[in-house]
Amino acid sequence: MSLAAIRDGLYTTLTSCGPWTAAEISTCSFDVLESVSGCAIVFLPGRDSRIEPHDLGSFNKRDYWRAWAISGTLYIKDVGDPQRLLSRAWQAHDDLYNTISKDDSLASTACAARLARLSFDKNVFVEMGGHLWAPVEWEVIADEF
Fold first, then answer.
1. pTM for the complete prediction?
2. Which of 71, 78, 97, 132 could be bridged to 46 by S-S, CB 3.0 to 4.6 A?
3. What's the CATH fold of domain 3-144?
């Protein structure tokens, strides 16, 4: 599979197994932050994809093991209620983990995928579309053998 196919599989998994609608997720722009009311997810290519020869039991040295990294941010709109914001940050962590765990094949595009990183900093906010957003950074690693 290509990285684009795996990205699309992640999108399918998030919309079919998770609490997010297609309107809340974008794989190619930040425009979604201008049209949603609570949370938005934006995908980015990951920082640390790895490609290595897969030569165990194979004579074909062009066979590779790929660990594709797909990063992203789940943005939580700040509506002026700190307790609600923190509650949604906790929930975002659970939702991302539980959703990826429901279909670690990412709609049959990867051999195995896992949520490898989650990060939230209470001091970081992003201004977009006239609103403040609290970002929850995440990264999914999708393996192909």
1. 0.88
2. 71
3. Alpha-Beta Plaits (3.30.70)
